[in-house]
Model the fold of this input.
Amino acid sequence: MKKVSKIIIMLLLAIIILSVPHLIKSDYTLHVVNLAGIYAICVMGLVFLLGFAGQLSLGHSALMSIGAYTTGLLAVELNLPFVITFPAAIVVSMLFALLIGIPTLKLKSFYLAMATRGLNIALFIVLINWKRFTHGADGIVNIPRPSFAGFTIQTERAWFYFIVAILIVCYIASRNIEKSRIGRSFKAVKEGELAAEVMGIDVYRTKILAFVLSSALAGTAGCLFAHLNQFICPNDFNITQSVTLLSMSIFGGSEYLLGGVVGAYVLTFLPEALRFLQTYARFINGILILLIMILAPSGLFGVVSSLFEKLKRQKKLDPPNNSPNIADVEGMEN
Amino acid sequence: MENIHDPILRIENVTLAFGGLKAVNSVDMTLEKGEIRGLIGPNGSGKSSLINLISGVYKPTSGKIFFRNEDISKSPPHKIASLGICRTFQTIRLFPRLSVLDNVLAGGHTKSSANVFEVMFRTKSMKSEEKWLNNRAYEMINLVGLSGLEGEKVRNLPQGQQKLLEIARVLMAEPSLILLDEPTAGLSPQETDEVSKIIQLLKEQGLSVILVEHKMKFVLGLSDSVTVLNTGLKIAEGTPKEIQEKDEVVRAYLGSEMTDAKA
Amino acid sequence: MSGILPQLLFSGLAIGCIYGLVGLGFIQVYNAVGLTNFAQGEFVMLGAYLFVSAVVIWKAPFWVGFLFLLVGMAVIGFLFTRGVYKPTYKAGRFAFLLASVGLSMALQDLVVLIWGPVPLYMPRLVSESSFNIGNVFINPQHIIIIGSTILLLIIQYLIFQKTPLGKMMRATAQDQFAATLSGIKVPLMIIFTFVNSSILAGIAGFLVGPVFSVTPSMGASAMLKGFVGCTIGGWGSIPGAVLGGILVGIIEIFSSFYISSAYKDAIVFLVLILFLLFKPKGIFGETVSEKV
Done:
């Protein structure tokens, strides 16, 4: 029964995803959908870091910029193909995460927050001023579209499928990590470092792993961003952008991968829908974070899931005998 | 090299000082394989400090600790845990927002080895490892009598069940030495019996246990031998019977507690 | 050439005093509630804007403008405690931190909405033209900054060491539970701590306004440097925060002269990373690893 309904849901989802680019007629709107997909990949990385491992990065757009500039420079200056620049972008962003993570993750958690913000500021300065290498504020232009075996991902529609495919792959990989010993070690570290440590979890290395994986997703997103827009400049990756990414993750619920994805789509489209408020975008974003933290720090998915939990508990309390449901136990073992 | 007859744990002249205060003062202690050792003493006598030293949470100011002839006095706690020493805490330290099952599964961290790539692609070996972990977790939950609560969030459990769950989490790691820091504090008599049965079971399986407790009847009934600490010093050691007969022990500690326990 | 070294040192000292004041505000809040306020830099900026609006826009006399700044910052500190600290400090480890990040972003935009994006000119107490002692050129505002910082530090010392209020605030910072037991109204002391630290930030803005221009983003970099100063000095140490801030100022001025002024903020960041790598406890070290 459960399997059948699962397949039906999957089919429905596939149909919806496949039909989206046909329902959206305007290329611009589709471009925004594509951008949201890219942000969703990066936000999943934040969920890894903040929601699972309990570490805060205020500079994730800096890590995105590493991915974007790596692929951009390799593709434009050295004419390397996407199949090489894409993994290179991911690896270089992971290296930067190591560089920041190693000195900070042994210390109290606010050090990573401040160091990532510092990285964001410092990297921005370097990107602007190191003109010979990064082309300064002019950015990198004419970044080629990725092509595989003669097929180039050119149209927004093609990009839609490309990005959704990568998003799904990233989601499944992330989900697999979450539901494994590694995901559990992340959550254990967040819930109680000492308890995690005496159970044999190397807390320091676990935090570094979470940050590096998170950065890999940010690098992936940055690389896609560069090839989709074909143009990148330092201002695409400023502090405001980092905070926007954060608000996407906490809006959806920073402990839920899907919450991050939903947050990315909603918060990419919200400003588009509220065009007339464009000048207040940062103000609204800031207030949004403030309000979420005050009213519902667990975000959309957190609120929904705690409602479910309450309902379940009430149901359980109704019948007096609290015997275990064998079917449930078996289902969980799979 | 390790010999079958070597003691499992050897504490040699260990001192732990905080500033001028010596929480543990030149303590020697040897634990044989399969032994249950009671660790008793008044509040502030250094019992919990000793547990913290063995599990690596504190590092000794001087002296050495050997586990199966390996010097662990400078090892970090996670390393010590992976060698096979696991512990519970006096105040419960579970992962409150995770489920009962996930708490116990997390205890099996050292019993699994899948790396990032293996879990990302869910390789065959990773899947069979997870299956093994899951089966063992259900077994351990069953052992402490919490079957049926696997999906429950830990923060929703009463304190007694949380204490039992902490034991299940420790057992998940298949340790060879278990440090229990007041496992029955705040438990009802029935739950205390439950814990006592579990410890007996562990002994039958050949595990070594260090048991810090205040409930005298409980600790003297279970232990093969007892070490008594007072103000950081070891003041006595012997079988439960010998300990109850020693004057200085009774004077320092047992007397009042024994009457308390009887009351 | 011989005059350049003392001159750099002097201006570094002056700029460093600003970072020291920001760091001082950081540390006071950190010691009291164990949290870092990411809106501290925006409080610096608000101080400058409050003063400019009083003196330039409403043409108030200088001292009225300063009084307006003090009262305004006190109100902001109070509102911040009630509106941001109180509802978030229990809601998970990053709730307050993220809320203050959100607030800092909102404040930067709010300032643009009210005062516009154009940098404002801050009137000075003293003449703009530098004078020289020997062959060292001195910016008079730098003297004002250093003098005021010394004065402020003395006032802070007197408040915290000599007044009953200050003693209660220190007791709160040391051990909230014990403070409660001895009858101290801890929530009130926390409000006072936030108010005090936001006033410090506001005065820093007033002092630095004539050196940098008054812009919405003027606080962001001051905050990062205040933080670096705290790290160099050692978190938890009050003299460490001030001295660390001064050191950051000197590093900044020297690196912009000898290396590149464009990269000065990046160099400060590099210093932070180096310190975290090699001396994470800072000069006046305290334990900084996550509490177990």
Chain C has one domain: 14-120+138-278. The longest strand of chain C covers residues 131-133. The beta strands of chain C are 131-133, 136-138. The CA atoms of residues 168 and 183 of chain C lie 10 Å apart.
